[in-house]
Specification:
single chain, alpha/beta, Nucleotidyltransferase, domain 5, 2 domains, 8-stranded mixed beta sheet
């Protein structure tokens, strides 16, 4: 027979439900909490297995919701039910980090241990040192960190639960490896519980015909303290941040983004039109190191610099961005020549080639990754290369803000289209943090160093690089 508190839910409104829960005896609260099927809300309910494209139905259940909506509880309940019904199942639990996966997905107040039924909880074995949870049925879940995508290469799973995917730093690699390992059982699937952010992977998952989406706003959860809801809505209600974090709405522009998409478009001019009075200057460089071809670059800038953000590893991206100060007093982004997957000699050669082709006055390189080694490598690629090392004392967003101001007041512009660079600019937010593609805004950093030299610092004449 249904517990009397559960039966009462059918006749109560949201406010009365909250009062009932707040005043419930502990024993009743435990019974009430355990009967998930009686009080699960719309947005938390698992989709019908046949929903979605193909004969096997959906492959990804994507739950986009505001903070406090109950995403974690819904994910834990689904995984628990799956383990109960599939004794031999192998399940992947993937968090932004291993610590977060453990603290939220397993040990948290809405995690797998907390939602286990009384008899099941006693039979479960949680082995934190092995990052392994064995359910009462014998099904086994293993914890993974999205920050270490290689750990997902190889293991096979029947089901994956991915938590806060929008904040994964290496989302693309982690998801790709995980997806290739979802090949056990008749219908291997993934559930994704996350507060939305406009990251490329999340957008792609939403567009996938095999994805079923659900979710809701923070206020939809009647069991969250009303004081919390009122406080956060008073602070953030109506803002873009509030729409994302409280309403669970995916927005193209992050709240507090340094570069909005509108600012980027407003700052754009056509390539080849920078200069004085609309005149275009052409510099021709016979530079075989640029793609093995003669390089012809268009610019009418009395001063040109190449900004460089060296990679922390051989697999990373070396940001290489050419910027120029025009005769009109405006600084322009002229080229994004960034490269990925090159060792020090490789990317240093590309920097030297860029400086030669554009007849740059100076190379501005961040020295935090390797210190003087960066200068040594760059000078080794070209003994005559004038290099200035800069050190990142402030966060990326703090360094970028004066440059963004230059864009806002028209002192800096984009001479053409640079999609990869622009996506990184749109991922930088006020107060620190980066939510764009990749682990780090390497291209944006390189641009910031170059434009700091041109548009922010006082200028003084310097010689131009010229080959005889």
């Amino acid at each position: 027979m249904k517990h009397e508190a559960l039966a009462a839910l059918e006749t109560l409104n949201e406010e009365d439900v909250r009062l009932l829960v707040d005043n419930m005896a502990e024993a009743d609260a435990l019974v009430f909490d355990a009967d998930w099927g009686s009080w699960v809300r719309e947005g938390q309910m698992p989709p019908d297995p046949s929903t979605g494209s193909g004969q096997a139905g959906w492959r990804q259940w994507l739950m986009l919701a505001g903070r406090g909506f109950g995403k974690t509880r819904a994910g834990a309940e689904y995984v628990s039910a799956f383990a109960r019904a599939n004794p031999g199942a192998a399940i992947a639990l993937v968090g932004a980090t291993a610590d977060e996966a453990r603290a939220v997905m397993v040990e948290g107040p809405s995690g797998l241990l907390a939602v286990a039924r009384g008899d099941e909880r006693a039979a479960m074995r949680w082995l934190p040192s092995l990052r392994r949870l064995v359910f009462a049925s014998g099904a086994e879940a293993r914890l993974y960190s999205a920050a270490n995508p290689e750990s997902l290469r190889g293991p096979e799973h029947d089901l994956a639960w991915c938590d806060e995917l929008a904040k994964w730093k290496r989302a693309e690699a982690a998801w790709n490896n995980l997806r290739l390992g979802l090949r056990r059982g008749e219908r291997p699937r993934a559930i994704v519980t996350t507060t939305p952010r406009p990251v490329p992977l999340l957008k792609r998952l939403r567009a996938d015909r095999a994805t079923v989406e659900s979710g809701g706003a923070s206020r939809a959860n009647p069991y969250v303290a009303e004081d919390f809801i009122e406080a956060v809505e008073e602070a953030h209600g109506g803002t873009r941040f509030g729409r994302q974090e409280l309403e669970g709405v995916l927005l193209d522009d992050l709240e507090g983004a340094l570069w909005s998409r509108a600012l980027i478009e407003r700052s754009r001019v056509e390539a080849g039109t920078v200069g004085t009075g609309g005149q275009v200057g052409t510099v021709t460089s016979n530079c075989p190191r640029i793609g093995g071809q003669v390089g012809t670059v268009t610019s009418n800038c009395p001063r040109i610099v190449v900004g460089v953000d060296p990679p922390a590893s051989a697999e990373g991206t070396c940001g290489i961005v050419v910027c120029g100060l025009g005769g009109d007093g405006i600084s322009y982004v002229l080229a994004d020549l960034s490269v990925t997957g090159m060792g020090p000699e490789g990317w240093a050669s590309k920097v030297a080639s860029a400086a030669e082709a554009w007849r740059a006055h100076r190379v501005i390189a961040e020295a935090n990754n390797g210190g003087r080694m960066v200068e040594t490598v760059l000078r080794g690629a070209d003994a005559g290369l004038p290099v200035t090392l800069v050190h990142a004392a402030d966060g990326k967003a703090a360094r970028a803000e004066p440059v963004m101001v230059a864009f806002e007041n028209g002192r800096a512009r984009l001479a053409g289209r640079f999609p990869a660079l622009e996506d990184e600019l749109a991922g930088l937010i006020y107060g620190g943090g980066y939510c764009g593609p990749g682990q780090s805004p390497d291209r944006a950093d390189a641009m910031v160093w170059a434009l700091t030299e041109l548009a922010v610092k006082p200028q003084r004449p310097t010689p131009r690089i010229t080959r005889l």
